[in-house]
């Protein structure tokens, strides 16, 4: 199929602010070795890692939006997490700690702005102290750098307008514009010879019936069909669909579990004249009844201070307005008995929250040629370069590259 597709040039990624202006229409050549679906930070980091390891293979990155990383990767707290919270030995713990180091090194190397402004997790009630100490132990097991416990005076020394009785001090925690980082991964990918196409929504992944002309590989090709009706051939597919990861898995014939249930997180912004009140990230001690880190103060790279996010069931997966509504997404959300008041990411068949990152493939012709990133919630931005290393290893193991 001849497919006219919009291609982003490397130069367009580079011009921050004027990002993506330089969009050209070109023709996609018929067949690629690997197609990556979804140009969020996980898809971009992984496409970059794969092409750097395998420069002789042909790669295409497919994104349904007009621009890259408009969804989770462009709407987050912007924190470089240090790895405190996660179960020791979990993927989250390992990949966050390694990912934070790689992220700092990457930003340094590329000249991307970041601030290592630190973070306090503050206990304000006596009953929170055992949980704070347990978090400290967990952080130490995860090899989080420079973690200490400070008292009320230590809190005031670091955050003069913050009051608490005890806090975990994580000076290694930082902030960055994750979308800018994601776009920089895209530049690397493009410069290494990868093709990035936008406004192409994947709506089917199947096996090709007959072998492409000139191919010596028989019919070992997947065929990706776009919502416009046109198609693309490739040997292997990696999906990094964020809020649509379950649907991408399902259209390739793989399991739809775990499903994604979308929760909206709203932020408040401090009035600029009050910005002096907050220096670094200030978080509460997480409430064990909820799986998220809690509403927190976060300084942004532009100097503003955000407070949030809350967690409200969203009626639409990519709905950023309070009244955004999609009957299908809403129905999906109601299919699960999620714990009350919890911002969902992926939920398993029994309605339990899937805490860790999940990457899996399937069985059969298509399933054995596809790898899905199923659950990549926070801290997947921090972990993106480490996730990319792990997925690239997995792609090399599963597929004969
Ligand atoms: C409120 C909030 C705060 C957060 N704060 C932090 C933080 O401070 N630090 C941190 O490390 N992490 C944070 N995270 C987590 C982090 O932002 C995400 O884990 C990360 O961005 C996930 O990246 P992704 O590439 O998997 O998904 P996304 O960024 O959502 O990308 C998925 C892409 O796939 C595309 N796509 C989907 N379906 C198709 C299709 N059929 N065809 C083509 N393209 C498709 C989408 O358009 C999208 O561009 C936060 C997340 C949220 C929601």
UniProtKB/TrEMBL annotation:
Its cofactor is FAD. InterPro entries: FAD-dep_OxRdtase, FAD/NAD-bd_sf. Residues 33-393 form the FAD dependent oxidoreductase domain. It catalyses: (S)-2-hydroxyglutarate + A = 2-oxoglutarate + AH2. It holds the Pfam family DAO. The keyword Flavoprotein applies. Its EC number is 1.1.99.2. Belongs to the L2HGDH family. This is L-2-hydroxyglutarate dehydrogenase, mitochondrial. It comes from Neolamprologus brichardi. The lineage of its organism: Eukaryota, Metazoa, Chordata, Craniata, Vertebrata.
């Amino acid at each position: 199929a001849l497919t006219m597709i919009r291609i982003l040039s490397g130069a367009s990624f580079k011009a921050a602010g004027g990002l993506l202006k330089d969009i050209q229409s070109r023709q996609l050549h018929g067949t690629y070795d690997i197609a990556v679906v979804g140009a969020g930070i996980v898809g971009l980091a992984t496409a970059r890692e794969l092409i750097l390891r395998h420069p002789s293979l042909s790669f295409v990155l497919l994104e349904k939006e007009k621009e890259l990383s408009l969804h989770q990767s462009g709407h987050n707290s912007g924190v470089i997490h240090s790895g405190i919270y996660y179960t020791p030995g979990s993927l989250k713990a390992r990949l966050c700690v390694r990912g934070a180091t790689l992220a700092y090194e990457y930003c340094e190397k590329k000249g991307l702005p970041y601030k290592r402004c630190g973070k306090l997790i503050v206990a304000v009630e006596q009953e929170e102290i055992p949980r704070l100490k347990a978090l400290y132990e967990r952080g130490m097991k995860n090899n989080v750098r420079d973690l200490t416990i400070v008292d009320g005076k230590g809190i005031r020394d670091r955050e003069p307008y913050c009051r608490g009785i005890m806090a975990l001090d994580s000076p290694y925690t930082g902030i960055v514009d994750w979308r800018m980082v994601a776009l920089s991964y895209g530049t690397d990918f493009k410069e290494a010879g990868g093709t990035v196409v936008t406004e192409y929504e994947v709506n089917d992944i199947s096996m090709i019936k007959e072998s492409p002309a000139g191919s010596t590989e028989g019919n070992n090709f997947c065929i990706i069909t776009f919502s416009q009706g046109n198609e693309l051939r490739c040997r292997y597919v990696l999906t990094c669909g964020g809020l649509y990861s379950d649907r991408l898995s399902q259209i390739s014939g793989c399991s739809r579990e775990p499903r994604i249930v979308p929760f909206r997180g709203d932020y408040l912004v401090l009035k600029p004249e009050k910005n002096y009140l907050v220096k670094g990230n200030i978080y509460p001690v997480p409430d064990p009844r909820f799986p998220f880190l809690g509403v927190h103060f976060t300084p942004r790279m532009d100097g503003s201070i955000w407070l949030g996010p809350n967690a409200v069931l969203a009626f639409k997966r990519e709905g950023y307005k309070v009244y955004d509504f999609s009957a299908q997404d809403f129905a999906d959300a109601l299919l699960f008995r999620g714990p009350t008041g919890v911002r969902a990411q992926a939920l398993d068949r029994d309605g339990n929250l899937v805490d860790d990152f999940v990457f899996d493939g399937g069985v059969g012709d298509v399933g054995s040629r596809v790898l899905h990133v199923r659950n990549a919630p926070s801290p997947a931005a921090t972990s993106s370069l480490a996730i990319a290393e792990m997925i690239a290893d997995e792609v090399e193991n599963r597929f004969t590259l």
